[in-house]
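Record type: monomer structure entry
Structure origin: computed from sequence
Chain ID: A
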Amino acid sequence: MNMLILMQGLLIMHLTGLTLLAGTTVADYVTFRTFSNQFKTLGEPSDSLLKLMSRLAIVLAIGGGLLLVSGVGLMAVTHGVFMHQLWFKIKLALILALVLNGFLVGNGQIAKLKKGLKQSTDRTDRLVSGAIVRLNIFYLLQLAIFLFIITLAVFKIN
């Protein structure tokens, strides 16, 4: 197979994975905001919105898988030439921050939110309110990191 065609195919996969990750994060944030506004207004959670947020995690995983496989493929095709550039090292660190923030903060806060919604006491109501505030910050941080990653990839700052 022609290396140029292989590289272009991997790049298409890479951009598709990035689009799925960033787009799903935006969709998840919009769903979360709708959920939290509805919860504040009506005082009761929307099970359908919570289920939608859970299902969006599948799309995130697919996007992450595409990004990982294509990224490794691109590194193999280019013989790791980008590994020595500052912008790429920063990009990798930001991707790691995205993943860690998702697993450590996002998943933890979603679990607290779901746990607090199952019971209705003063303590769990505070737990839910705190989780909503922290999840709002979490999503905004994730989106800011995506914006910074895209900016780095475009300008390739060294």
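Annotation 1: The CA atoms of residues 43 and 67 lie 39 Å apart.
Annotation 2: The two ends are 32 Å apart (CA to CA).
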